[in-house]
Amino acid sequence: MPPALGSSALFLCGYLTYHFTIHGVTKFRDPAWFKPIYLTLLLTHTVLAVVIVPLIIITLTRALRERFDAHRKIARWT
Fold first, then answer.
1. Which of 56, 66, 72, 75 is the residue whose CA sits 20 to 30 A from 26?
2. Sequence-separated (6 or more) residues with CB below 8 Å from residue 39
3. What is the DSSP secondary structure assignment for residue 30, as one 8-state letter?
4. Neighbouring C-beta atoms of residue 71, cutoff 10 Å
């Protein structure tokens, strides 16, 4: 699991760096009919990405403290 956590953190850092420093604002282009579908998918993806961060921290903390019974309960969602 440590390599998975490390590669996920590295991806997040790279993604945020790219979008906030290099790429800038992304503007939606044609087709116009697809824009509401795209924005709905983007919104749900963003909300879930934000919610998962505390879950990862809790799961990792429980594993490191060897509280595996509590770790298992949250790990299946994380």
1. 56
2. 28
3. S
4. 18
